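Example complex used in Figure S2.
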Amino acid sequence: MDEKIRHILEILESDARANPEEIAALTDMTAQEVSQAIAKLEETGVIRHYKTIIDWDLAGENYVYAVIELKVTLERNLGYQAIAERIYKFPEVRSVRLLSGDYDISLTVRGRSMKDVAFFVAEKIATLDQVQNTATHFVLKTYKEDGVILHEPEAIKRLPVSL
Amino acid sequence: MRPPCDPSKFVAETIKNVPPSGIRRFFDLVSGLEDVISLGVGEPDFITPWHIREMCIHSLEKGQTSYTSNYGLPELRDELAKTYYRRYGLEYDPASEILVTTGVSEALDIAVRAVINPGDEVIIVQPAYVAYVPAVVLAGGKPVIVSTYREDDFRLTAEALEAAISSKTKAIMLNFPNNPTGAIMAREELEDIADLVAEHDLFVISDEVYECLTYEGKHVPFSSLEGMKERTIMLNGFSKTYAMTGLRLGFAMAAPEIIHSMMMIHQYSMLCAPITAQIGALEALRNGNDEMERMVREYDRRRHFVVRGFNRIGLDCFTPKGAFYAFPYVGATGLSSDEFSERLLNEKKVVAIPGDVFGEAGNGFLRCAYAASLDDLKKAIDRMGEFVDGL
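Predicted assembly (554 residues):
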């Protein structure tokens, strides 16, 4: 990968709001070059989406999250992709992953209450023909989300002057 | 009643001859000030990568708190030998050619003491790290200064070096990537230096602690040049590369006779480097590459940011090729480095170290460490811009 592109992606991965001028200063490029590079990365799908990580607990919105493990049976002409598509279209579903190991698919689901989530799984997911069984794990606390630690890290004090 | 006494008369003459550090003065100036942004530190703002800290903690839990071999943990020396073979094809025998020390500072001190006789001249290339002259003075040697200049990108030229060599010259101290300028040397330029070293039968103490923080081109260890391995002590450490400053771990690589003589001092003064830090260092070498590269890329971005920033506010700034210091020229403002730094601190609460602390050749410059968060760098440059505009 081109070094400049790697720099741009790393900057945006940690701060989606970094603007072309700021990125230019960090990469020894012009703002125009950065804009063009980003446009191309967006066009080719390397940059999928810009999003914000929110601590909803702190905002006072008590969402309930659950990780759901699914065991599925594959049918003729119907692979994992098709099952995943059926599942990820529900807006309650935040992520869908195919896994190796005991379970096949892992979902993250968000709802307004435990009852909400439980009913969603029981009515919409467990009833799918291909789903053999499900295991629902409610999230009690999120410590780190997508590389971001969700609490105030304690600042480390350095001496202001050193050799 | 016994007579009163002045304890200062007991202080050794050698210590009285050591010039005071210009950086120390800033400690006192800074203390008590609030909202200070510091570009005055010589250490990473990153915390030691977690896998290294975790390994140190685990070793403590297991009770690994004993002495190690004077030379350092055998596994660590093995891993160092492998690392330098892999990186540069350098072959150092882990049993006899590597010494693990308490930071590069200790390695520097004992390296100089191991090879310098009283009266020997040691060439020091300035601007230079502040410990070199004192290390030579404390060993009874005579520092001879060679300056590097902005117009040469702060590289050492063979002509300048040759002019400083006398019949009493024993050794040269090199430091590339350089603190405070960020200069590096290309292979051809080092070859010219090596020619002179061989011609005048000299020894080289090469402090390569910023080796991994080389942003343009590939670092060339001085000892990797043909015929130079036997004439060189390579000093290096973990502080800058793996953000491990306070863990104090360095090492020296040289011929067995030299390493043995350094160990003679080390065993009686330090005994061994702290075992916890050695275990952390081993983990750093084995599994720290990704984290290290991530930090280097981050420094690289800040490097571009500060150079552009300084030039924008009217301070001519050479693009450093290594380390994590920018060295802008402030002489055009009409202020000396010292006046600039002191007023900048008092009026705008930004700490930067006056260049003359690193020798005459640093006069008119300012050392600004960009191992600080981007937010702090932004604020610092804005404040410096206001300061320059107000002059």
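The mean pLDDT of chain B is 96. The interface with chain A takes residues 21, 23, 26-27, 30, 36, 38, 40-43, 45, 47, 129-131, 297, 300-302, 304-305, 308-309, 351, 353, 374 of chain B (CB under 8 Å).
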